[in-house]
Input
Amino acid sequence: MSRIKILPEILSNKIAAGEVVERPASVVKELLENSIDAGSTRIIIDIENGGRSLIRISDNGSGMNHDDALLSIERYATSKIHNDTDLFSIRTLGFRGEALPSIASVSRFSMITRDRDSETGTHILADGGRIRNVSEAGTPIGTMIEVKQLFFNTPARRKFLKSTNTEMGHIAETISGVALGRPEIGFQLVHNGKKIKNWPLAKDPFDRVSAVFGQDIRSDLHEIELKTEDASVFGWISSPSLTRSSSQKIYLYVNGRFIRDRGLQHALFEGYRGRLMKGRFPVAVLFIQVPYEQLDVNVHPTKHEVRFTGYRKVYETLKASVFKAWDRIDHPKKRSYASEKGVPGRATKAASNFSSDLSSKKHYEEKEIPFQQRYHKASFEIIRPSEKNETISETIHEYHGTEKDKAIKPHKSEENGFKSKSFFTSINVIGQLHNTYIICESENGMVMIDQHAAHERILFEQLKKKSLRNSSPAQKLLIPETIDLGYKETAILEKLIPGLAEFGLEIEPFGGCTFAIKSAPDIISDREIKPLILEIIDKIGDIGFSEGIERTLDNCLILMACHGSIRAGQALSEREMRALMDQLELCENTQHCPHGRPIKASWPLAALEKKFKRIV
Ligand code: ADP
Ligand code: MG
Output
């Protein structure tokens, strides 16, 4: 007897499902692709429990007649290709004839469908790939597929499903990817009976882009377009100031198919040419069109990867399209606080040097309000050391004592990260260097302070102290600002809301994925709050909540402090510099900004004297 056997169809479908159906989001992707291929203009996605209990996709596409409906859940049954030649000029999203049988083999499956030539619809019920019942059903033209209890018969797969939130995040991400590529189709997503997304068909594709990403970032997205002999590129890329910590928000479509392709992503980064900070990724929606014959989409079962004949040329076209856009994008924005004030040198350079951490937040700088005004808010709590019943001379002595003194009081030393009292109130401010560093004279030498790092530290500690005393002064926003988020972002923000409120950043759910910002901590209330909130969500999305809520909120505070503080390249008056020193004095840690960068660097007189060969 032969040992080699042809596998029964149900088993081979289950094996195929292993590749095609990784998680609920993969089912959603395949079903959406089918609805799109069927020419639908409206697709409704109903999910229960992150897709474990139910995935229901209803469309108003072509539908199927009775025979086609039965065939559609057979392996290798497709209406999309018929011969070899078709395989190499595929215009539809599907073509492998694998998705429906694979999905049906690992779920309790139901399909109701009717095409325009049939008077009644067909209803097919299948369990684990076995047809249980076929009946007639009254239904409009189109198709409704229900996938219940996904992986009920493959426990190993079921075990790998993550939390409802995570699976829902993947589903929402999948739908965003599909919806961005098909603005001409309306999409609605409902989870556990709650409408989460409703994207009506968009005449202008940019309306879809802003519906998916949120209205807030419209002004930070720039259109790009380039046609060459080899390919055409059209889409939107973000300003270098609007970046994310992963490549997840880069949506790449080749001939309408959403793909992941590191090479083409690289072409996009190349087009930014040094405008991106290391480790940051732009937001982009890019449509690339190439001749169908040059594209091989039959590379991977999930069709997320493709191959091109003229890959290099497509790469170059994409890169050139991005690069070409900069002249236009850069031009209206070529200004920074310092260059406006006519200070040449570093400040001007900073405006175009996006690799600096500060200039990457250029959009905040541009809307900078005069320091004086902001300082007034930030400094409402200056208490001079003398008011704390400490005489300056005492405290100076404590810090500027002899080496021997320091040895006796090691815990007071600057090196351990905690302040030595009155050091900062005692130093003389000499001036500002390149609008970035404050040069000071200390009793035994020269000290330079990084103004941004110092102010960040001050604000961070002020925010933290106030929250501990539970008296964060907050400014109610006269008109609450609203913010639109994606599904994942919503889940993150919802967790942060109570903690952020303690710091005076009050945010209220406004239905679905929309939130209203009610108030902001005093020190940042005159800044743009939305970019701050987006950055907080991005950061926490990155690091997760595993370190505990307190550490998580610390990270939020760090970002708040960063947004509220003065920037490098900003001219300060003598009074402002003095006030900064006085406030620094009150900090617990005067060594590092909350990100860990040093606040000050010192040069003892002896070192200077050595440099000038006064001593050897
Ligand atoms: P493929 O999409 O690769 O052809 P599928 O298994 O996904 O394979 O679908 C099989 C066939 O069923 C499709 O070729 C199509 O003819 C039909 N079909 C599937 N879903 C729909 C739908 N929503 N509307 C109309 N026809 C559909
Ligand atoms: Mg398909």
User: Anything to note?
Assistant: Residues 53 and 149 are 5 Å apart (CA to CA). Residues 401-603 form a domain with the Ribosomal Protein S8; Chain: A, domain 1 fold (CATH 3.30.1370.100).
